[in-house]
Amino acid sequence: MLRPALTSLAALALIAAPALPAQAQAAPEGTTTTANVTNLAHLDFLLDSAPLLAGVPGHTTYQQAQEPTAQAPWVYANREADGSFQRVGGGSYDPSTGHWGQGSFDADDIARAAVVYVRDWEQNRTAASREHAYQLLRELTYLQTSSGPNAGNVVLWQQPDGTLNPTPTPPDSPNPSDTGESFWLARTIWALGEAYPAFESADPAFGSFLKDRYDLALTALNRGSLAKYGQWETANGARVPAWLVSESTTASSEAVLGLSAAVKADPGDAASRAALQKEAAGIAAMATGSPGHWPFGGFLATTTSRSMWNGWGGEAPAALSEAGAILGRADYQQTAENAVRNFIPQVLTTGGPDNGWTPTPFDRSQIAYGADSLVESALAVAGNSHDPSLKKLAGIAAGWFFGANPTNSPLYNPSTGVCVDGVGGDGTVNRNCGAESTIHTELTMLALDAHPDVRSVATGATSVQARSGVSVVEAESGTLNGPASVTTPPSAWTGSANWSGSYVNANDGASVTIPLGKLAGAVQVHPVVDLAASPSGTTAWTATLGNGSTVALGTTDNGSLGAQGIAPTPDALLPLTLPVTIPADAVSVTAHVSGTAKIDALLLEPATSYLDLGGRSGLVLSAYAAGGFSISHD
After folding, report:
1. What digits encode the pLDDT tens for the residues 105-122?
2. How many CB atoms lie within 10 A of CB 64?
3. Residue 560, exposed/middle/buried by CB under 10 A (0-12, 13-18, 19+)?
4. pTM of the complete model
């Protein structure tokens, strides 16, 4: 979700930062951009002194007595009318205490900012980045609970005066935030797993301290979800792993990034290798679908829903590819490659890094976290498969920052390091530039600078000339015959999915004829149906062509989903696949219902989707319903 702008700012000083210009300078046509695009100036601006209060039970850090402050990034930065930014915390502000409902600093952003600075230090030998990484890691380990029953877990929020806030408003899950494993534990493992090897030779004492705290975090992970390794749950009839961090593919993937770094640094680290094997097995089990079958080889976001893919945090292909390379698991690499080859091109041709396909592209807002996830995944798989076409795909995905996005304008300025907090589904740009957005923008920029050929593709993709991808046709737009009616749910959210709008509630003998509009070519039809747990009859589907003839497309079940298990609802909103592709002259699709059915929409997947990029790159990405992609010059 786009992070909201917060307005309780009276007690904070206005601190100027460079503004994002309306249009960044593009390289002349036919040239290759060679300048680095990483600029940590805005992330530096977000950093502030974080007091390390003494005497807080279970919370200590490296050389706390000698250095009683560390560093942390403010969670938000609101853009003012004059182009400056004001750093603000999360939740409502209480001027009498100087506290926020949540806090000014959070472990999620501290951990990921540390990853940015560690990578910049290692890649560019930047002395300032080494110091920032050192201070951020001291702060992160202060937030980590070091003793007692919750040892290894992490408090999420801290106030500007150093006070820890384990029970914020609104509360976190878990609550208090260090009473169980969490996204912030996973991100702590990511940061410490990448950081301790970097410091082991440069500062052995600090490196040893970080390794001890990494081991402590790993102990918490083993005590938590990994204690369920090998156990399986049921979610709406599907078998899902019980041992993912917080039931989340995202959280487990980010933990795997740290575990992989640790095992790469020390192949003999048996505890890290065992945890990596277990987490990777869980992530691999979340890959779903195949070419022509939703979600086309992508990874579901959570074990509790069969209907959800999130753009933000979609790093599962990167994590699984890295794990596969380290563990010698070619099957993991192939699963990751399937997602990158078959699903990411569909995402890019459909609209870019949307926040959520749930299961239709429902949340069309886009943020740097989602764009970075696509870039990092394509690059990781490219590196481990040695396929240059995947590097070019990564460059196309990274073009989002430079103008290949719904606004056709740059969302990042390399001369200032300023980004945006996202683009709404209506194309509105959130010009704030908080920690998460800045962090994931700079992770992409570091990756681009490490791969100049990919950077050249990205910086040359400055607009979208045209695109044609997966589209949605609402069932309620159709003509209803027999016992059928349109129902508008009180909320789009079902508990595990989103209705794309209203839906058609059809009973035995009803039919719904849904107009398709003008098709650009042949399409694969995916009816989106709310499947019942028990048998509820079937629906036969036909298409009417321009000459009036009809074509049988196939039959789908209305139910027989299976046991609810850990899913929040007994039914599930899912796209189904009809085996027959319809030609470009089809004018409508009709559902003939036997039993009872709830029909939400039709997902239309072109046999060939495309993204035509403007700017120096002049590239056209084509994605195929039959699988795979190609990249050509316009």
Report:
1. 999 999 999 999 999 999
2. 17
3. middle
4. 0.94
